[in-house]
Specification:
Layout (H helix, E strand, L loop, with lengths): L2 E5 L3 H12 L3 E6 L9 H11 L2 E2 L3 H5 L4 E4 L6 H8 L8 E4 L5 H12 L4 E7 L3 H4 L4 E5 L3 H10 L3 E6 L4 H30 L2 H11 L5 H32 L5 H14 L3 H4 L7 H11 L1
Parallel strand pairs: 1-2, 1-4, 2-3, 4-5, 5-6, 7-8
Antiparallel strand pairs: 6-7
Helix pairs in contact: 4-5, 8-10, 8-11, 10-11, 10-13
Length: about 290
């Protein structure tokens, strides 16, 4: 039986672990740096217990005995996680790095992991983990990408191997994010400016006329809670996108602007200040006005 462990047990890690367990896969353990923080340790342990996973006190204990280790940390911790886990890996283990970062960082992480004899495979998550959960589409790259894709598919995951070169998958993800995160940032900036005029409804009416195939109020409502919950992570990802574009010889003008706008919202820390996460664009705009 294939045994899987997680490094990082945030939203993505938790949802994937729950999906794997439901599919009958053995998930032996998870380690997250939050377990070392007295303020967050109890909540992390409770989440792991509820999911049905052992919360390990360190990376070594988490990965011992696992066939596949899935790294699901925040983007700026990708290399840190690899350096923390690498010394405890052994030949034949798979290390699946699904973090949103540049091809350069993925290649650096691969060098660290492969020193142990373990197989490094990068993954690019090509949509939001919720609501897809275990079935979120992923692109894999690396010499063992095909072999690992076959294994993961047998356990219910939606993976496609696209090449042997580390960085191939993450490059696709980073370029896609220029549009996806850029769209989010543009919508946010547009609505904030419209709100200053008291004109968000006429603006949305106009967008509805110009692009009738989308329900623009539904779109704005969809992004409202996600912006509050994920703006910090998305802003960090856009800096990785900028690095990727520079590697490709493209000046990252839009990527950096998107990072700045998303970072502006993240710095408000609305998730920590509000009793409830805004579920509508109107509630989000009001929260922004109240906290500026």
């Amino acid at each position: 039986m294939t045994v899987i462990a997680f490094i990082g047990f945030g939203e993505a890690g938790g949802l994937l672990a729950a999906g794997l367990l439901k599919a009958g896969t053995e998930v032996c353990a998870a380690y997250d740096i939050l377990i070392d923080d007295a303020k967050t340790s109890a909540a992390l342990k409770a989440k792991a217990e509820k999911t049905g996973v052992t919360a390990s006190p360190n990376a070594k204990e988490a990965v011992t005995g696992a066939d596949i280790i899935i790294s699901a940390v925040v983007s700026d911790q990708t290399l840190v996680a690899a350096k923390n886990v690498g010394p405890h890996l052994s030949a034949g283990q798979y290390y699946l790095d699904m973090n949103s970062t540049s091809p350069k960082v993925k290649r650096e992480a691969a060098e660290v992991i492969e020193q142990s004899g373990a197989y490094y495979v990068e993954a690019a998550v090509m949509d939001l983990v919720p609501p897809h959960g275990l079935r979120v589409p992923m692109l894999l790259a690396g010499e063992k990408a095909v072999a690992l894709s076959i294994i993961l598919s047998e356990h219910g995951m939606d993976t496609t191997a696209i090449g042997d070169n580390i960085g191939d998958a993450s490059a696709v993800k980073m370029v896609r994010s220029v549009f996806m995160k850029g769209f989010t940032a543009i919508l946010l900036e547009c609505l904030v400016a419209a709100n200053r005029l008291g004109a968000e409804e006429p603006i949305l009416d106009s967008l509805q006329v110009s692009f009738p195939d989308l329900d623009w109020r539904a779109v704005a409502n969809y992004y409202a809670p996600r912006l509050v919950n994920h703006a910090k992570r998305q802003a960090a990802e856009m800096h990785e996108v900028a690095d990727t574009l520079r590697e490709l010889g493209v000046e990252p003008m839009t990527a950096l602007s998107s990072a700045a706008r998303l970072g502006w919202l993240a710095d408000m820390e609305l998730a920590n200040k509000l009793d409830e996460i805004p579920e509508t664009y109107a509630a989000l705009l009001q929260a922004i006005r109240n906290n500026e």
